[in-house]
Amino acid sequence: MPRVVVDVMPKPEILDPQGKAVLGALPRLGFSGVSDVRQGKRFELEVEGEVTDEVVAQVEKMAGTLLSNPVIENYVVRVEQDA
Q: Other CB atoms closer than 10 Å to residue 23's CB: what's the count?
């Protein structure tokens, strides 16, 4: 079944306290070499039938109205084949 994925991330100018908390925890757990962490969300939508331009446009509308807050978040919609 085809899958459409929406990745949502805070805009670069928005503070990301969860990402900062992860960044601070990594060295305490023995991990090094990470200079920044941003935490986002991933939505996987399995769709019936073929993924057409209309289906992608519908998911774009979902992403802009429900799955993200466009004031503080950016999103990317992509299609995964045979997930």
A: 16
Residue whose structure tokens are 């200079």: 35
Domain extent for 38: 3-80
Whether residue 67 contacts residue 5, with contact meaning beta carbons closer than 8 Å, is answered with no
Q: What is the pLDDT of residues 13-22, one digit of tens each?
A: 999 999 999 9
Burial 60-71 (b: 16+ CB within 10 A, else e): eebbeeebbeee
Here the CATH number for the domain that contains residue 61 is: 3.30.1280.10
CB of 76 closer than 8 Å to CB of 7 = yes
Q: Which helix (H) or strand (E) holds 24?
A: helix 17-28
